[in-house]
């Protein structure tokens, strides 16, 4: 379980990294869409941050991840300019591809192919079902 300090740092990094990638360094992506930051996990000593990027599904996702990893130093420097008043040390950034969207699409496809038979209909009518037990006797109230 993460401490409050780790959670605060992770939240700060997530917000500021998104701004850095979209505003400060959009040229890294050749005018394309900057990746989203889906999750940031920080080590207890705040020395490393695992950044999970939500890249577009497709063949160029690995290429875009490599571009980000190659420019990790520039990203970290731009991040340091943004959080220098808030954080003492900027953690080392380790980037990963978050494939949860692809997994969700795969699971949706699998669930769509299942042949689930309809539930059997109840043969009892609503009138024949036993009544719920009473917590008190209505005759006692009189």
TrEMBL record:
GO terms assigned for molecular function: ribosomal small subunit binding
Record bears the keyword Cytoplasm: yes
Transmembrane segments: none
Pfam family, one: RBFA
SUPFAM superfamilies: Ribosome-binding factor A, RbfA (SSF89919)
Location of the protein in the cell: Cytoplasm
Keywords: Cytoplasm, Ribosome biogenesis
Function description: One of several proteins that assist in the late maturation steps of the functional core of the 30S ribosomal subunit. Associates with free 30S ribosomal subunits (but not with 30S subunits that are part of 70S ribosomes or polysomes). Required for efficient processing of 16S rRNA. May interact with the 5'-terminal helix region of 16S rRNA.
Name recorded for this polypeptide: Ribosome-binding factor A
Organism of this sequence: Hymenobacter sedentarius
Lineage, opening ranks: Bacteria, Pseudomonadati, Bacteroidota, Cytophagia, Cytophagales
């Amino acid at each position: 379980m993460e401490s409050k300090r780790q959670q605060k740092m992770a939240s700060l990094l997530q917000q500021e990294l998104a701004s850095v990638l979209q505003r400060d360094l959009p040229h890294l992506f050749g005018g394309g869409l900057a990746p989203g930051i889906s999750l940031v996990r920080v080590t207890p000593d705040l020395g490393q941050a695992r950044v999970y990027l939500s890249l577009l599904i497709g063949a160029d996702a690995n290429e875009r991840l490599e571009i980000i990893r190659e420019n990790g130093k520039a990203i970290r420097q731009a991040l340091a300019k943004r959080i220098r008043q808030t954080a003492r040390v900027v953690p080392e950034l380790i980037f990963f591809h978050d494939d949860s969207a692809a997994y969700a699409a795969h699971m949706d496809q699998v669930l769509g192919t299942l042949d689930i038979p309809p539930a059997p209909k109840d043969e009892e009518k609503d009138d024949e079902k036993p009544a719920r037990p009473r917590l008190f006797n209505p005759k006692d109230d009189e």
